[in-house]
């Protein structure tokens, strides 16, 4: 089990006091389990969602001092709010309420039972070299604090049942590769080549999955990295590159993404065999995004290269500093900003992850719908 750092301990203590103040301690455990759609009992076999990740799950609202720390990246990494992002869209499909960010929790048991979004824009798997973002390890400590609170308040057996029926959503790696590929090499290079770096990232993700399993988590979804080599930022940086100009995407960058995704899925296949009772799903956002990028009109898009909100070549020189900068119709674009897709793309990803329509087999070995209806 993870030990709490000083900052996490303080936050956890405040959260714990809030729970004590707001819970009705005379209430029986069974009465605590009121599903998020207002009916008694669990709404499905997925009782709640706990989200860990980067800007794919957080618009910056859950990142303390993000307006100061965002550096040259987007101040607004999504269009409107994190309710337009993939995990929130999937939570809605599962009958769950909006999963509140960790730093907006009010200490109520209702919020805790519904799930928590620990995600933070620009979060990394490896500890960040610069800034003060909530890395994977920091978010994992917060998740384990939540599990400990559930055990304290509900008892070991009831908390175990809740955790086993909860879905843990993991979406990392994008910012690690961005830092490795784009930032000043002298300050961020970890000292090994790109392939080795992707293997280390995968090893860390597998360790996290195993740690969650040891904490009685049985439903886990790992999202792959989208094709960064086609992103407006990378395209802008490589604008004068003859390779990029001819191919439309930077293949050397995408090869690293593919190495990470392929290796992560292979390791997940092994985990599903070894970890008894676990359901670990890999979702191939890379393949889906490439389909949208190379066949945009088939999915209602008009622009698959330029960011809706940004400046410079491909809208990828500077990020989205204000929604006023955005294009008139974001739904016609594949990319929202430097590295993140639009809400329209997230909706298509959510539909595909949920039921395999319009894109089949994005999530493997089963869809979210199959996971949601399966017994734990």
Helix content: 40-55%
- The number of E-state strands comes to 8
β-strand amount: 5-15%
- The CATH architecture comes to 3-Layer(aba) Sandwich
Report the order of strands and helices. HHEHHHEHHEHHHEHHHEHEEHEH
CATH class: Alpha Beta
As for the number of domains, it is 1
Uncertain ranges: 1-43, 184-189, 242-247
> CATH superfamily membership, which one?
SGNH hydrolase
CATH fold group: Rossmann fold
Helix tally? Answer: 16
Q: Structural class, from secondary structure content?
A: alpha/beta
Shape: globular
The Rg value, from CA coordinates, equals 20 Å
What average pLDDT do the residues reach? 84
* Strand order in the sheet with the most strands: 2-1-3-4-5-8
Largest sheet: 6 strands, mixed
N→C terminal distance: 23 Å
InterPro entries: GDSL (IPR001087), GDSL_Est/Lipase (IPR051058), SGNH_hydro_sf (IPR036514)
GO molecular function, one term: hydrolase activity, acting on ester bonds
Family: Belongs to the 'GDSL' lipolytic enzyme family.
Signal peptide: 1-28
